[in-house]
């Protein structure tokens, strides 16, 4: 009988576990600071990092700001400005150290590592488009309990310091799932398709706006099954895995952006 009660209790905890929607607090470069802004009985506060607004979500009766921390942040203090609610003012977040491993890759298509002048012009045009998508702040509150968007083992993790064909390039700003061409990619949470396109480095790409600057992206697709402006539900098909753009083979590159900052997507997944 007692065991039964314990199991029942654990069962309820399990349900609560899935209901807890906050990402993991990881105040390091490439991580997320989850900042308590007081009881949700008060009006919703707003929070900013400089000019960039932050997501503020309600969880278990409290408001929390979600601060995406850029990968190039040095250890020390970051300040956010909070207005409204019971904790208005400047809040200081202590940023710790995280050392990401190095990864060396060989890309057969040399133009993807050393683009020609036409490629560079294209890359600049594409950057202007994707930067605007990543900066966008829509008003609706995001759901942050994400599903892994493809079924497969996690391969290259977020934050790897990358060397392509012996040349240092930008760090790995997403999480790779090792799955073959044609495997389905599903929305990890509700959102609106913000952009689709075929980009020089990222190949066929879908961006989903989950709300308040929480944006996710799916890259190197072989097929895109959604169009911009379309509403998608958690689990809905977005497209299929492929090997378009700068890749060593088929896989899903999944990026998650908060306040215009790529963060570790694993922080949004339930711990195994
Ligand atoms: Zn990747």
Structure description:
- The chain has two helices and 20 strands.
- It has 272 residues and is mainly beta.
- The longest helix is centred in the middle third of the chain and has 19 residues, at 117-135.
- 34% of the residues are buried.
- The protein binds zinc ion.
Beta-strand fraction estimate: 35-45%
Kindly report the name of the CATH homologous superfamily of the largest domain.
Answer: Glucose Permease (Domain IIA)
Poorly predicted runs of 5 or more residues = 1-19
CATH A-level architecture of the largest domain? Distorted Sandwich
- Classify the fold: give the CATH topology of the largest domain: Glucose Permease (Domain IIA)
What is the CATH class name of the largest domain?
Answer: Mainly Beta
Structurally, the number of domains stands at: 2
Helix content: 10-25%
CA(first)-CA(last) distance: 28 Å
Biggest sheet statistics: 7 strands, antiparallel
Structural class label: mainly beta
The kinds of small molecule bound in this structure are: zinc ion
Give the assembly state of these chains. single chain
Coarse morphology: globular
Topology of helices and strands:
Blueprint: H1 2-19, E1 32-39, E2 46-49, E3 52-53, E4 55-59, E5 62-68, E6 76-83, E7 89-95, E8 102-105, H2 117-135, E9 161-164, E10 167-168, E11 175-177, E12 184-186, E13 191-199, E14 203-211, E15 214-221, E16 223-224, E17 231-232, E18 237-240, E19 252-258, E20 261-263
Parallel strand pairs: 8-9
Antiparallel strand pairs: 1-5, 2-3, 2-6, 4-5, 6-7, 9-10, 11-19, 12-18, 13-14, 13-17, 14-15, 15-19, 16-18, 19-20
The protein binds zinc ion.
Pfam families: Peptidase_M23, Peptidase_M23_N
Protein name: Peptidase M23
Organism: Dechloromonas denitrificans
């Amino acid at each position: 009988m007692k065991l039964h009660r314990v199991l029942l209790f654990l069962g309820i905890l399990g349900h609560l576990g899935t209901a807890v929607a906050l990402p993991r607090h990881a105040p390091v470069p490439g991580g997320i600071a989850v900042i308590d802004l007081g009881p949700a009985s008060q009006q919703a506060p707003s929070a900013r990092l400089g000019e960039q607004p932050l997501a503020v979500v309600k969880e278990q009766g409290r408001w929390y700001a979600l601060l995406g921390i850029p990968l190039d942040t040095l250890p020390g203090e970051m300040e956010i400005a909070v207005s409204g609610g019971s904790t208005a003012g400047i809040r200081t977040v202590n940023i710790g150290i995280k050392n990401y491993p190095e990864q060396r890759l060989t890309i057969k298509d040399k133009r993807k590592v050393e683009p020609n002048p036409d490629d560079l012009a294209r890359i600049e045009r594409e950057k202007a488009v994707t930067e605007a998508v990543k900066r966008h702040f829509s008003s609706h509150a995001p759901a942050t309990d994400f599903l892994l968007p493809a079924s497969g083992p996690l391969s290259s993790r977020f934050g790897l310091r990358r060397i392509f064909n012996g040349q240092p390039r930008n760090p790995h700003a997403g999480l790779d799932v090792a799955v073959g061409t044609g495997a389905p990619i599903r929305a990890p949470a509700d959102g609106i398709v913000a952009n689709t396109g075929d980009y020089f480095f990222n190949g066929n790409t879908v961006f989903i706006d989950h709300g308040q600057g929480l944006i996710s992206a799916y890259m190197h697709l072989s097929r895109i099954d959604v169009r911009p402006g379309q509403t998608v539900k958690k689990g809905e098909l977005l497209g299929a895995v492929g090997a378009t753009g700068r890749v060593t083979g088929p896989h899903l590159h999944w990026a998650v952006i908060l306040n215009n900052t790529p963060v570790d997507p694993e922080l949004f997944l339930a711990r195994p």
